[in-house]
């Protein structure tokens, strides 16, 4: 940055330079804060299953508890949770890296919706949830695997947060300049004041925090970074006790 020492011009350029430096330092401080928060969140998420595992195993080793299939099963479940968390973190790191490589081709969102349906049909059936697909073919130039992940994350959430005998609808359709994916359920819903927060890493609504079924709160952060990398947007809507609707809009 060069500064010419000529009266007012000099002052103006100095102001601009100061503003540019301030902006840069603010950005760096924000990044640093995010990094710190992420470390704290990860540590917190790891601690819970590790504490349970350590106390269960300790009790069995010291003879306070008889080893039983049930107790070993619960240790195994904690290990599965840990390994799920590590996979989620890996996926999040990959999708949030600046150089997220999108392997783009022309893909039909309806085809992705059907394969996603096939993958989750049994899980929905286990809860007697009715799962339907509506809409029509719509082609986007996008990364097929990443968009499958977007739909899978949204659909698995819909199943997780919808009680037995609920309803889930996947809709894919063409809009003027864009293609739309919509996944709606009539499950527990999201309180209005938390709608904008659910896309943040590790955020879980108060309602789902106490539930056993919830994950670590990473799925929607992954959805958002994939959709943003495609130049699209994702939006959550919900009305109290009436379920949730997630809408992904992708440019054609
Ligand atoms: P998690 O692994 O906890 O499901 P996500 O990032 O996928 O994490 O979602 C973040 C939070 O958003 C969830 O913990 C839940 O509180 C809320 N949420 C997401 N999808 C739904 C839904 N379909 N219905 C109600 N709440 C939802």
Characterization of the model:
The model has no long low-confidence stretch (mean pLDDT 88). The protein has helices spanning 7-61, 69-96, 109-126, 144-160, 206-209, 219-229; strands at 104-108, 130-135, 139-143, 167-174, 178-185, 233-238, 244-251. The two termini are 40 Å apart. Helix 1 (7-61) runs antiparallel to helix 2 (69-96) and helix 3 packs parallel to helix 4. Strand 4 and strand 5 form a beta hairpin. It has a 5-stranded mixed β-sheet. The protein contains 6 helices and 7 strands; from the N terminus they run H-H-E-H-E-E-H-E-E-H-H-E-E. With 252 residues, it is of the alpha+beta class. Helix content is 53%, strand content 18%. The structure holds adenosine-5'-diphosphate. Adenosine-5'-diphosphate binds next to helix 4 and helix 6. The site of adenosine-5'-diphosphate (ADP) has 24 residues, from helix 4 and helix 6. One of its GO terms (biological process) is cellular response to phosphate starvation. Residues 1-33 form the HAMP domain. It catalyses: ATP + protein L-histidine = ADP + protein N-phospho-L-histidine.
């Amino acid at each position: 940055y060069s500064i010419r020492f000529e009266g007012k011009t000099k002052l103006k350029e100095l102001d601009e330079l100061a503003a540019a430096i301030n902006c840069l330092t603010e950005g760096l401080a924000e990044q640093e804060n995010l990094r710190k928060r992420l470390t704290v969140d990860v540590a917190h998420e790891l601690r819970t299953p590790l504490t349970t595992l350590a106390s269960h195993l300790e009790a069995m080793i010291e003879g306070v508890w008889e080893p039983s299939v049930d107790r070993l099963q619960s240790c195994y479940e904690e290990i599965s949770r840990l390994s799920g968390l590590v996979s989620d973190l890996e996926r999040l790191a990959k999708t949030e890296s600046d150089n997220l490589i999108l392997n783009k081709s022309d893909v039909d969102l309806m085809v992705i919706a059907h394969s996603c349906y096939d993958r989750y049909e049994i899980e929905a059936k286990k809860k007697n949830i009715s799962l339907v697909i509506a809409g029509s073919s719509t082609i986007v130039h996008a990364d097929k695997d990443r968009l499958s992940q977007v739909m899978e994350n949204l659909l698995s959430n819909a199943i997780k947060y919808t009680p037995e005998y609920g309803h889930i609808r996947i809709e894919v359709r063409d809009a003027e300049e864009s293609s739309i994916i919509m996944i709606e359920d009539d499950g527990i819903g999201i309180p209005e004041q938390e709608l904008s927060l659910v896309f943040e890493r590790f955020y879980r609504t108060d309602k789902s925090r106490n539930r056993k079924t919830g994950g670590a709160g990473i799925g929607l952060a992954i959805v958002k970074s994939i959709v943003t990398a495609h130049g699209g947007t994702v939006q959550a809507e919900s009305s109290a006790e009436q379920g949730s609707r997630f809408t992904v809009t992708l440019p054609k």
